[in-house]
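User: Structure tokens for this complex, please. No commentary.
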Amino acid sequence: QKEVEQNSGPLSVPEGAIASLNCTYSDRGSQSFFWYRQYSGKSPELIMFIYSNGDKEDGRFTAQLNKASQYVSLLIRDSQPSDSATYLCAVAAGNYGGSQGNLIFGKGTKLSVKP
Amino acid sequence: NAGVMQNPRHLVRRRGQEARLRCSPMKGHSHVYWYRQLPEEGLKFMVYLQKENIIDESGMPKERFSAEFPKEGPSILRIQQVVRGDSAAYFCASSPPLVYTQYFGPGTRLTVL
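Assistant:
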């Protein structure tokens, strides 16, 4: 059973600080990783995806992948109150080109950015 | 550039009735996924479809639930004889071929009385 684990939080950071969100996954063969943001009562919104070891930056967001440690993280620089949401880590269930196209989600980490 | 569309956004059914949830993928996307999110729970995969084909239904309950994605028209998730435990948010996502990146629709919130 493939699993994705996240600390449920809540994670509270002051405005302007760096928020660090972490995720571990159980299947060493996983290749594709995603971060979604979900505001209360809304649908998940894709923030970033990462396939290769290392860092990937997009604006205030940086995704980090360490396949040896089976660890994915999301850093949010200069956190804003509007970043307050639940952040979902997801891992593609299959290998590229396989039939298992679905994503396996963690339960999410609730982030609160205090003004 | 319309995103993934789902309707209805809210659906109320009494126990024993049928619920039909519809999903139109983003333009150019031929893959559709259905997920269910129970209150305070994570998103759980239900079924993965391409046009006229069910690719993976390993997350779908064996009874009362079915899904289709016809050649023409939206994908439909059908729940027969609903029970209170079916109350949840049902999300549809779509992706282009050979890409795992999925974009979600606004969801259908099903309430079973």
